[in-house]
Amino acid sequence: MVFFQRLFRQPQPPNHATPSESLEARLAEYDQAIAHGTDNNDVWFGRGCVQVELKRYQEAIRSFDKALAHRPNHLDSWHNRSLAFCQLGLYEEAVSSYEQALHFSSVPSQDWYFYGTLLAQLDRYEEAIDSYEEALKKDPERALIWYDRGIALSWLGQFEDAIASYDQALNLDATLHQAWFRRGLAFNQCHNYTQALKSFDKALSIDTKGSEVWAAKGLALLQLQQYKDAITAHDQAIKLNAKDDQVWYNQACCHAHCQQLDQAISSLEQAIHLNPDAIRELASTDPDLQVLHQHPTFQKLISM
């Protein structure tokens, strides 16, 4: 929700406004102006913006409705109205609201981008991609649009196209560590673990504190049968987030391949503690853990 909060568009403050003026005082000024007969887009839009800052989103929507009754083509009112719906978790209503704004002849790139983000929230990825591409027609140098386009393509299983989109983003901004991470995930899905590993290493060279990146690196190393390095990567992931059952499970597999049976059992026990049913079902037939089947603790863990 913080992401959407940052996107609200503010009116120009009145000449007499002071930086220290409270939100409640500003709202009272708008209410007083309305009570004295000022009834136009500016006053209702300004009132809605203050209500947003006060997190009174239902009231803000009603104010933006009043603003649009006076000026139906006011893009910022449609924009903020949609964002208020987002803050309430009402994404269908937010999309419907924003569709009204897209009928205007000149829609900025950022609005197409935001509309795509809304559609992605609703898992409408093909439509989201169309919206991102409209945004890119107007602003092809914006790395975040290429990045989010890549995410939508990944959700559709179009991993090679997603990689190409992440590449575009990284050509524009090589410091986007999340784009390196997502690029690595897409390579993992293509079973190109060597390239995945390179992407994860780039992400970690920018930000070492992403537990999900260490976990993904560990999985790629596991697939490449580099088990000792995979154990090291999983250890880093666990230090940052010890509540991911899949990381503990993958760590168990690595220890098993290294014939470190007690460590494998210990990691498997942690995974089962976090997600008992799913991990027991997986472990009972996983060939990576075949070597554990004769361990005295294994059957107890699986059958508990």
TrEMBL record:
UniProt keyword terms in alphabetical order: Repeat, TPR repeat
Transmembrane region(s): none
Sequence ranges of the TPR repeats: 41-74, 109-142, 143-176, 177-210, 211-244, 245-278
InterPro entries: TPR-like_helical_dom_sf, TPR_rpt, Ycf3/AcsC/BcsC/TPR_MFPF
Origin superkingdom: Bacteria
Protein name: TPR domain protein
